[in-house]
């Protein structure tokens, strides 16, 4: 699976994104979401491939978390710049887990 299998969201209004491939419209205050685009044949996609494409490795998550913990905007497991809860627990998929997310003040970037 490659990035071509994901929706390509464009901002069409404030906090409103539309995929230029399949046309789905999503409201999101956290920027463009990451979805497997519905124009793709579902039987060609393995769950493991989707997870590998969307989620950071444990090492990448740990690295991001350590940066957050030492940040001046990090208080009570929350980023005061974007409002995200920053928790490493795998049950809670948050900003740390998604490859396409970025730190709002530029301390870590999206992963490839």
Q: Would you kindly provide a brief summary of this structure?
A:
18% of the residues lie in helices and 14% in strands. The protein is α+β, with helices and mostly antiparallel strands.
Domain unit count? 2
Number of helices: 2
Overall mean pLDDT: 81
Please list the strands of the largest sheet in the order they lie side by side.
1-2-3
What is the structural class? alpha+beta
Helical amount among residues, as a percent range?
10-25%
Give an account of the 3D structure.
The strands form two sheets. Strands 1-2-3 form a three-stranded antiparallel sheet, with no helix packed on it. Strands 4-5 form a two-stranded antiparallel ribbon. It is built from two helices and five strands, in the order E-E-E-H-H-E-E. With 112 residues, the chain is of the alpha+beta class. 18% of the residues lie in helices and 14% in strands. It folds into two domains: 3-53, no CATH class; 55-112, no CATH class. It has helices spanning 47-54, 58-69; strands spanning 9-13, 16-19, 25-27, 74-75, 78-79. The longest helix has 12 residues, at 58-69. The mean pLDDT is 81. It starts with 8 loop residues before the first strand and ends in a 33-residue tail after the last strand. The protein is globular. A hairpin with a 2-residue loop joins strand 4 (74-75) and strand 5.
């Amino acid at each position: 699976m490659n990035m071509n299998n994901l929706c390509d969201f464009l901002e069409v209004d404030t906090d409103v994104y539309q995929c230029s491939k399949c046309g789905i419209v999503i409201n999101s205050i956290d920027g463009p979401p990451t979805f497997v685009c519905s124009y793709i044949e579902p039987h060609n996609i393995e769950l493991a491939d989707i997870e590998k494409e969307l989620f950071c490795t444990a090492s990448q998550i740990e690295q991001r978390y350590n940066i957050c913990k030492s940040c001046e905007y990090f208080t009570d497991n929350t980023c005061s710049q974007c409002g995200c809860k920053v928790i490493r627990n795998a049950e809670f998929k948050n900003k740390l887990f998604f490859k396409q997310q970025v730190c709002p003040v530029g301390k870590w970037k999206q992963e490839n």
